[in-house]
């Protein structure tokens, strides 16, 4: 971690092994002990900043599994790295980056990861955190009863081109019905995070989710408007990674603290 940058880490000390579920195989990285949390990386993959968040969760007493469905684990983000990853995601049937009302195959894989982790960690279930392109995957994974807590940070899929995609919840209607049913019964709670000016994670999507999930869906919005007191850029996007600073009172740091508190309350530990 640089003195004025976001927390970061390397893959050193993480156990890497392939995991197969729903006919899909990806490597997963695991570390820690205690209740389970599945951390789904953001574009372009498991960057040093994603690992910084993962290490923080391990330090807070969780067993963390980080699947690697895209990108090169441990590689820092750059324009030359991000663009080919985005190009692959745009054409991949596993992710269906532009599809409306879509059941994405990758979420079936993530449910299998969550169920496996829940079966071998303490507590009645696990938490799932998705970020950026994977933000909505956390909620779609919560169709599975093993998921008790979902965190959707700046959910950006489907890519928000046009009004319908901006309002799309990032899952199929059947999945959304099941998530709403679990939320209404108290089986599931969720948090959504975004920056106020983030066009990649549109407010219309949060409105769709809030309208269906009600009080079970807590929305945290960080001010990135012009002249905001923290100095966030208007294009600020990654709440829990790139934009976070280990400075007391920093809004993204407070958001991360809230996420940890939420996971503890839902999962124990």
Automatic annotation (TrEMBL):
SUPFAM superfamilies: alpha/beta-Hydrolases
Keyword Hydrolase in record: yes
Keyword annotations of the record: Hydrolase
Domain Dienelactone hydrolase residue range list: 34-152
Entry keyword Hydrolase: yes
GO terms, molecular function: hydrolase activity
A Pfam family per the record: DLH
Annotated protein name in UniProt: Dienelactone hydrolase
